Amino acid sequence: MSTASDIVLYNYAFSPHGKRISAYLALRGIEYALCEQPFTMPRPDLALLPVHYRRIPILAVGRDIYLDTRLILRVLESLPHVASPRLGASTGRDKFVEKLLEKYIIEGPVFAMAGGLVPVDVAQDPTFKKDRQGMLGRTWEQEELEEGRGECLNYIRNLFDFYESTIFEDGRHWVLGSQGPKLADIEAIFMLDFVDGMQLPQDVISDKIFPRVYAWFERYRAAVDEAKSKAAQPAVLNGQDAAKRIRMSELELSQTVFDGADPAGLKEGTDVEIYPADWVTEHRDRGRLVALSADEVTIAVESREAVEIRIHAPRTGFKIREI
């Protein structure tokens, strides 16, 4: 089984994407160390690696740093020497459902609509407003949030209804009809679980209106809580100790494939920068391009101690630019 010395998760407790990863780690029984991060910038712990990408969570496996939860989950699914079974689907049909859920919830409008339900008092906090300015195309002003709330609430209500009237209509307990939660459940539930904590109006979204979905919520939360209670608690590291542990590790999982016929025309060894395509594009990681495939890019960077660290990002949702 992987140990805490292999894996370091940079996270903060109420990140919906962070909860997605911590739930997977618990349900799979994978040990890890935790480096807790502040809710807003700056995050000097990441600069020690060095990583400029600002979104949370970030996962380190040895000296390989993985950005974006889509890639993080793929890496966790493929970890060697983990005794417990993978949570990913095993049949083509179920893999299709699982992947479609990931694409819709992450790459579709769900997160933007959920963001519109952030309580106004939270969004008016000066630190929050400054840090998230421009995120999801919003200024986070009170008038803007109040004007768009009805549209966002209706969209999320329709998503609850979609689950209620389709996948759970036959009485199943889990998305794929399994005996317990799988990766498909994590993909399907994490944003709804997030918005459920936002004091939604009971006459629009509640357990009385969507009893099957809320029963699924209860089963899922209970399963994650039980898994966490049985697992070893993650060692909590400060930024210095986390960076030191990573620097002293190996490059064990690094992607090594380079697609010489990639449509972007990028060449191995070129100095490039990678950054999110949609927001905070000024937070760019620069390094030597060492691996490239249809769905992953890897660059090599050096720490202040002249130790090579590799940063991995998915292709979808990220830009790669030659320097």
Description:
The protein has about 325 residues and is α/β, with parallel strands linked by helices. Among the domains are: about 90-230, Glutathione S-transferase Yfyf (Class Pi), Chain A, domain 2; about 255-323, Glutaredoxin (3-Layer(aba) Sandwich), CATH 3.40.30. It has eleven helices and ten strands. The chain has helices at about 15-30, 45, 70-75, 90-105, 110-115, 120-125, 125-130, 140-165, 185-195, 210-230, 240-245, and strands spanning about 5-10, 35, 60, 65, 235, 270-275, 285-290, 295-300, 310-315, 320. A ten-stranded mixed sheet has the order 5-2-1-3-4-9-8-7-6-10, with helices on both faces. Strand 3 and strand 4 form a beta hairpin. Helix 4 (about 90-105) runs parallel beside helix 9.
